[in-house]
Every structure is written in C-alpha cells, then in structure tokens.
Write a structure and sequence with these properties.
This protein is α+β, with helices and mostly antiparallel strands and 514 residues long. 55% of the residues lie in helices and 14% in strands.
Length: 514
C-alpha cells in the first residue's frame, strides 16, 4: 500500500505544500459561471384560458357569443387525492382540491424544490468545507531498487536493502473561499431563479383556479341546459298528446300530428346529447381535482348572476402590472440571467482562498505528534483558450432572450386584460337581453297554445314558439355562464383569481346555502 505524502509528517510545525492541499480543498478549485437555459419560461404546467367566440350569423339565437374554457397540458390532470368526496361538490372544495392535487400545481412545486436545491449547491461554494480523515499506512521500500547501495560502508554495521514504514494519521481539514466573484454571482443568480420559480408557483395557482372554476361553471351550465331541455320534452310530449286527441276526433290532419311528433323527437335527441355532454364535463372536472374519473356526484353550489362591479380598464391594467406573478417571475428570470452574465465576466478576475489541516501522525496513536499546515492561494487567470469568452457570449444570448420574453409577456398580459374586459362587457349586455327574450318567448308560447286549444291557430305556430322558448332558455344559460366565466377570467388576467375568486363570483359564505 503506497503511503500518501501527508503520512510523512514528523514533528513539523509549519509546512507549505500547495499541490497537496489544493487537491484536498474543493473550495479552492476552479469555478465556472452557470449555464442557464435559453428560455426562462416555466414548462410542465400547461395552460388554462377562457374565451368567447361569435356565433354564426345564420342562427335563431339572440345570443351572439359562445364562451369556452380551454385547459391543456398537466393542468388538465391530477395526482390521486387522499381526501374522498362525501356529498355534493362545492365550488370552494373543488378549487381547494385543485390547488392540492392538480398536476399543474404539483409539477411547479417540484420545480420550486429543484431551484432551491440548485441555490443551496451554488451557496456551498462560498461556505467553508470541513472534513476529517483517518489513514493507516504500511509501506515497504527496496532501497537498492531506488539506487541506494551502501555496501559495507560502516564496518560491523549493515544497512538493510529493504525497509518498512508504518504510520497512523488522524487529521481535520478546512478550506474557505475568500474572494471569488464568479461563485458569488452564481449564488445570486440561483437565488433569483428560485424566486422566479416561487412566483411561477403562485401564477400556477391562478391557472388552476381558472381551469377548475371555469370547468365547474361549465358543468353548472350543462346541468341547467339539461334541466331546461327536460322541461321542453315534457311540453313537447303534452303537445303531441293533445294533437293526437284532436286528430282522433277529426279536428286536425295527420300532418299536424307528425309535426308535433318531430318536435318531441327532436327534444329527446337534444336531451340525450346534453346528458352525454354533462357526464363528460363532470369527468373532466374530477380529473383536475384528484378524484377518480366518475360522474357520480352533484354540484353543491349554483353560482348566481351578480353584476360585476364597475372597473376602469386603466385600473385593471394597473392591477395586472402589480399583481401578475408570472410577470414578476419573468423579471426575476431576467435578473438571474444578468447575474449569470456577471459571473461569466468575473472569470477574468483573480480568486483567493485558504485551506488548513490539523491532526496527529506517528507510527502508532500513542507515539503520534501534532502537525498542521496552512496554505493561502491566489489564482490569476491568464489565458484559458477562449472558454471564458465563450461563456460570456452564451450568457449574453440568454439575457437577450429573457428580456425579449419579459417584454412579450407584458404585452400578452395587456392583451389578456383587454380581451377579458371586452368579454365581460359583452356577456353583461347579453344577460339582460337573453333574460328579456326568455320572458317574451314563454309568453308567446302560452298565447299560441291558447289559440291552438281554442281552434283558431295551427300547431305549426305552437311548434315554432316552443322552439323559440328552448333557444331562449339556452341563450340565458349561456350568457350567465359567459358572465361568470368572464369575471373569473378577468380576475386571472389581473393576477387575483386564487385570492379573490369567491368575492369575484359572489359565492355564498363557506358552509352556507347557495
């Protein structure tokens, strides 16, 4: 066994062995600037949004907008939750389950932990390193093989050709960086990156609230459409029965019966399609909140129509600029890139460090003597073959990219606020229009049925009036859904969805009745 060079200390009070101590001092090793990814945008969260599209012109509907909830990527799924669902699902419970179990929240939480770990690693380069070791060495040397041949230099005394050494070394080692601008800026950069990920986690909460809350509202609208269609089926069946009775006594032709039957069949088909749509939406909802893919539950809350408070567009823009966590995260990502660039440029600067060791060494623990060593080191870079220049150029591209991403995000947020405000304004106008239209169409249906029963009207008028009632009911349900979704979407656009969704939607108090 070859004995390390440190094992040959004997009664030494000061040794300067730079090569040896450098190998044992990680803090003094050459450091390099961090290589950040080109883009600072968070991956693995997915997207959630709400939008309105104009209905085609060839429609009997008075509603001109169609709201849609768009959920893509991890935010549309979840990990298995530990809390079972008992009873109806409330809006608050759905949102809280989404924040706890939604895959978008879980994924970004892991990214936060990873960023914090990188920050800890970078900080370690600035802190002392302390280690201890125990070595026991036994070494046998052939002096003749090393060129020593004493022969009979001393009469009566023979120097052995083979000698044996053995010693025990117990030692503590410490090293500390005194000046390393690259490592310092690396730490600052990772600290900003960790801060950016924490802000991204806050933004992910807003996305989850919009995804879960919007889908909850969508399920509520689907349930209301199904109930309205069931009512229309009952009305169509009653009209069909009445028509058959009048045709049996010769008051109506067979074509009137066929027309009424077609209307009843149409309503039944709608009921079947809407029931399937409701089941699928309910499955989508529980998939986001950590429950099994089942529709065996009911909604506990009915989110009402409550007019949104007046909010000027300039005020909404100001709140978005101050409240959007993703914009703050982009600022932090930009600062991280700038500090990484500073770290790369600092590689041209000298580094200063110190290392020391203290212990005992001897042929046995009982015969050991105390020894120590202290080394100070200054490293001055002269030429590294262009490595530092390449790192600087690489860091400059990252800064440019992240500055462009930050500017793009600011423009995107402004667009989101403006679009959300326009959608909410359109939906607000639609609610009053569709409500009045629903009242008028019901009145027309009642009057038309009275005329038909009195024998002064045809059933084609009743069928048309009934279809108008169905369309008006769907319009009102759709406009209320669009209005509530618009309020939630505007809150997300301003960065307030996670904190103020209950206030924005005017939900009943927790534990209260809807």
């Amino acid at each position: 066994m070859v004995r390390p060079i440190t094992g040959h200390y004997t009664r030494v009070t000061w040794l300067a062995l730079p090569a040896v101590l450098f190998l044992a001092a990680p803090a003094l090793a050459q450091s390099g600037a961090l290589a950040l990814p080109l883009s600072g945008r968070t991956a693995g969260v997915g997207s959630a949004g709400a939008t309105q599209t104009a209905l085609p012109g060839a429609t009997s509907s008075v509603n001109t907008v169609s709201p849609t909830v768009l959920v893509q990527g991890p935010v549309s799924g979840s990990r298995t939750g530990t809390r079972a669902l008992s009873g109806p699902l409330g809006f608050r419970d759905a949102v809280q389950r989404g924040l706890d179990y939604n895959l978008g929240s879980v994924s970004v939480a892991q990214l936060v932990q990873q960023a914090r770990s990188q920050r800890t690693i970078a900080r370690s380069a600035l802190l002392p390193t302390l280690s201890g070791d125990l070595s026991v060495a036994l070494q046998q040397l052939n002096l003749a093989a090393q060129g020593f041949d004493f022969g009979d230099a001393i009469e009566g005394f023979t120097i052995p050709r083979v000698v044996t050494f053995h010693n025990v070394d117990i030692r503590a080692r410490v090293s500390q960086t005194l000046f390393d601008r690259t490592s310092l800026n690396n730490y600052r950069s990772t600290r900003e990156s960790a801060r950016a990920m924490e802000l991204s986690a806050a933004d992910a909460r807003d996305l989850v609230v919009l995804a879960v809350g919007g889908t909850y509202l969508q399920v509520q609208a689907a349930r209301a459409r199904l109930d309205a269609t069931a009512t229309q089926v009952d009305t169509a069946e009653a009209l069909l029965k009445q028509t058959r009775e009048r045709q049996a006594v010769g008051l109506l032709a067979k074509v009137d019966v066929d027309r009424a039957e077609i209307q009843a069949l149409t309503q039944r088909q709608r009921l079947t399609a809407l029931r399937s749509d409701l089941v699928k939406l309910k499955i989508n909802l529980v998939r986001m909140i950590g429950l099994g893919a089942s529709d065996q539950y009911e909604l506990a809350d009915v989110v009402p129509f409550v007019p949104a408070p007046e909010l000027a567009l300039d005020e909404a823009m100001r709140r978005a600029a101050e409240g959007r966590a993703d914009l703050k995260a982009a600022d932090a990502q930009l600062r991280a890139a700038e500090l990484a660039l500073a770290a790369a440029r600092a590689e041209h600067l000298p580094t200063v460090g110190v290392s020391a060791d203290y212990g005992t060494i001897g042929s046995s623990p009982s015969t050991s003597e105390r020894t120590y060593g202290v080394v100070g080191r200054v490293r001055v870079p002269i030429w590294d073959g262009g490595r530092t220049t390449g790192r600087i150029a690489q860091a400059e591209t990252v800064v440019a990219q992240r500055r462009a991403e930050r500017d793009d995000l600011a423009g995107q947020i402004e667009a989101e606020v403006r679009k959300a405000a326009l959608d909410l304004e359109a939906a607000t106008n639609q609610v009053e229009l569709t409500r009045r239209n629903a009242d008028v169409t019901r009145e027309v249906l009642d009057l038309t049925r009275q005329r038909f029963e009195a024998g002064v009207g045809e059933n084609v008028e009743v069928v048309q009036a009934q279809e108008a009632v169905a369309t008006a009911a769907y319009d009102y349900i759709n406009s209320v859904f669009a209005h509530n979704l618009g309020k939630l979407n505007l809150a997300r656009a301003m960065g307030q969805a996670a904190d103020r969704y209950a206030e924005v939607l005017t939900l009943p108090a927790a534990g209260g009745n809807p």
